[in-house]
User: What shape does this take?
Amino acid sequence: MSFAQQLIDWRRELHQYPELSLQEFETTRRVRQWLEEAGLRFVPVSLPTGVVVEVGQGEKIIALRADIDALPIDEAVDVPFASRNKGVMHACGHDIHTSVMLGAALLLKEKEAQLPGKVRILFQPAEENFGGAKRLIAAGALENVSAIFGMHNEPGLPVGAFATRGGPFYANVDRLVIEVNGKGAHAARPQEGIDAIVVASQLVVALQTVASRSVDTLDSVVLSVTRILGGNTWNVLPEKVELEGTLRTHRQDVREHVKARVNAIAAGLAQAFNADIQVHWHAGPSALVNDAQWAAFARDVADWHGYQTKEADLHMGGEDFAVYLEQIPGAFVSIGSASEYGLHHPAFNPDEALIEDASRYFALLAEKALLHA
Ligand SMILES: [Zn+2]
Ligand SMILES: [Zn+2]
Assistant: This one.
């Protein structure tokens, strides 16, 4: 079997058995088994899921990272290797990333004797819920690592295309939960209650003004309300409505300013309508900030490798690779996967043709980075 076919077969097997964040037990077992068969050396990390291997010798260490988890989505792609775990799907292409880094591990293993240092390859659990990088770091995965590299497939780019940028790349991610507490009443006697649904509705509309009317138009901000829950029948005004949503920014000062505006609007509406509104913020990963030099280096190697490269646009998504880059320098890159449907869509269907080529790129990048670290 060709190397490319091997990687595609592995990807398809991972794709058929996707697992949610921190439940990647079978994925971990498979990845371990394939790496073991290829003779890779495991770095012990005391985590229930995830795998770390090392190849080469010497003091210098460069790290590569793949994420291995999937999403709670029902797959709507009609392929023979569609998800067999109902309600779970590799809709972000982490199966692709995993097979790319499996390939890189095998390629590096072949030339282990010539490597001017070590390459540590992290198969990270729980990217989607933004907890995995932190856990791996706590387990020692970054110890003595000089620089780290990782990828995300980019459905909007063709296969063979590559993009990255120095400085901020992916966004600061915040989740917010808002509780609107009114007063229940008979729906026919609203004057006796405080209508939490009406207050919540005003709040959703008022929040639209934050990005559009109180932030510099040149700064990137997304504030979305994504869930609204309240009431359970037709003739009762509910006591409480819960809203949930997300804030995405690239600059810390903008992030703080928007949070302050949301809190102020909620407090003002609460007072105006005699309701009680509680805003709870849950910080996700901070903005992913690529090291300028390593990003330029990764792009140079990509040019040399034969990718069509370009400067990446700012991305409003979150990516917990950011957590590694808070500790050590490195670069995160986008590689074209040419899917008609985007990430997290039930019909997301990346082109597997990117896998082998990306494996060769990351093996080359790690080797060249060892010479520069
Ligand atoms: Zn994702
Ligand atoms: Zn992803």
In short: The domain at 172-283 is CATH 3.30.70.360 (Alpha-Beta Plaits).
